[in-house]
Q: What sequence folds into this?
């Protein structure tokens, strides 16, 4: 059961996690655009969790705690959809979302923005976009986004969160 900070004004939220392993995926116009959130094979790539507190640490606990067929090694992006984007996903789950309906989750202050951009009734939608296997540890193989406006998720933060799922 997820631990909640009962003094917080935030309520625990269900998170529907869409996991995209980019093995063999066609090159997108940008590393985070052009990916369908819902895969045709619904038994793969979808998971659920509970975000108990509005923090990147708790979000990483939720993502790392997933028991999915292919382990999540190192996400390139963690992206939340806005409420408008979640509505589009329910209407046409295979259609990629436009940039204006995406919230990049890199820091603690991104999490409350994600929560506020969604109503409190529907689950939050999270896209975990994995690094390509050829990306490996050589970050120079995949060019960084122009002007560093949409930075890759920090691998050091991911690595440091390795024990988070066991923390109280």
A:
């Amino acid at each position: 059961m997820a631990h909640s900070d009962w003094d917080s004004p935030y309520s625990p939220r269900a998170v529907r996690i869409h996991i995209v392993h980019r093995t063999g995926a066609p090159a997108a116009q940008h590393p985070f655009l052009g990916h369908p959130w819902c895969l045709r094979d619904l038994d793969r790539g979808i998971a659920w969790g509970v975000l108990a507190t509005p923090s990147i640490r708790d979000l990483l606990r939720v993502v790392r705690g997933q028991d999915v067929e292919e382990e999540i090694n190192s996400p390139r992006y963690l992206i939340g959809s806005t409420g408008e984007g979640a509505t589009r996903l329910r209407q046409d789950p295979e259609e990629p979302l436009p940039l204006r309906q995406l919230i990049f989750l890199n820091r603690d202050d991104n999490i409350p923005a994600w929560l506020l951009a969604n109503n409190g009734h529907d689950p939050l939608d999270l896209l975990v976009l994995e690094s390509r296997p050829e990306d490996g540890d050589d970050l120079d193989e995949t060019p960084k986004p122009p002007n560093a406006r949409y930075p890759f998720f920090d691998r050091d933060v991911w690595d440091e969160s390795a024990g988070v799922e066991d923390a109280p």
In short: The chain has one domain: 13-166. Helices lie at 56-64, 83-91, 110-116, 155-160. The CA atoms of residues 85 and 101 lie 5 Å apart.
